[in-house]
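Quick one - first record:
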Amino acid sequence: MTLPDGSELTTNYYVFHNLEQIRKLKIKYFIYDTQDMKRWQTDFKNVELRQSLVESLYNLDAYQQVYPERKLYIRSIPSKKEKRKEASRVFAEEVLDLIPVVLRQQNTPISENDDRLMKYRSKWETNDKDLENTISLTEFWYILEEFDVDKTRIMICPDPVYELTMPKMVKELTMRTLNVISPWGEQVMRSEQAVFHIFQVVYCSVNWTTDSCRTHDECLKDFKVK
């Protein structure tokens, strides 16, 4: 994906094609630009550095320690409509990952157990591995203020996966759901998308002109084939 300033974005997942590997190693999704990628590829030619360079792509913190002056990106995902304008949100987990990294980059590091970080970890905990919390850009801005972050170091960009799948769903009609990649590498969708998908699968896939069901054993007797 290309930004208005000409920067081309990619993700660390382009190196890891195996979802099981991503899950096993707990590799967290982050965005960086192709200039960083080319530098990484050049360094990767050094055999002695290869293992450490692969591990640097496990998460944003590890990558920034290898390349301390890299540009920092956080993706935004369109959410519900507010007064005819589509509001955008960011993953709470990625905010927690970003703050210590940007503070270290601006030479004001904090502990990973900083009380403010712990407060937000507790606030955003879902206790459900299938759910990911998001926050509005307004709340994100106030959190950056609270941590005294230099905002010029962070670029908010559209989520690349969302931007690629939206045309396929809306215009080309080649996708039934609008998915994005969670911070942990799983496919997720917005709550309203989940409701719409359930409606499509449960309601629209039923032939309402007949009272029989040939597919599901658990259907009511009145819907069974006689």
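second record:
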Amino acid sequence: MKSHPKDNMPAAMILCGGKGTRLREVTELLPKPMVPIGEQPIIWHIMKTYAAFGVRRFILCLGYKQESFIDYFMNFHMRLSDATITLGHNPRIVFHKEIEESDWEVTLAQTGVESFTGKRVILASKYLKKGDENFFLTYGDGLSDIHIGELYRSHLKSGKLFTISAVHPAARFGEMLLNEDRVERFDEKIAVSAGYINGGFMVLNRKFIEKYLSRTENEFFEKRPMLSAVRDGEVHAFRHEGFWQCMDTPREYQLLNELWESGKAPWTQFWDE
């Protein structure tokens, strides 16, 4: 994998604590970020996307079924490599395979089962390092072929406290073109909608935390804090016209797995550059 040392990338904070009730068929057993796409959970796919652009430090905001994350990352190398284990008073493990993720630093921040997203960011922010004047923020349930390097540079150039990715959502229904009462065209499957939504790939300046997030209230990041920043003109939009897909429903879970199994998953295009 090609690294991007010149980008000097900061940490990526990933919101992983929600219960994922709309994907209940799967999330009764696993938290949504741990739901598998292929052989690995979706959180791994998201982290690989950031790592392709030089991000090596990750802060996971845990909550619901946090033990799944702890088990996965504590045994990460063991799952991917043969190992020799010396038992006894001084146990030792020797792994026989180097893994691409060996230079990742993953902080598992226990931010509470009932915490909302704003409180999770506040609680996990203590793990940002001194040089993280800006940091990435994203959710643990969406994949994209977004260029993380361009997103970061756009944020720095804007001078704003908050940059949000603007993406086109996948259309859930067919679309008809009408001429008065006559149907002139019917497209059963439209790739994307014409409008923009929050794609979840965000960059925050640390000043955003002190200015907009409450250290006493349990609140959603996406409500009062974000709306206040919009009101103050502190939100910059980075338009992404490429692939983006969240995983909120069984249908979307199936779609992402089908794309992965096809060998042409769009979100992997930067992984081996």
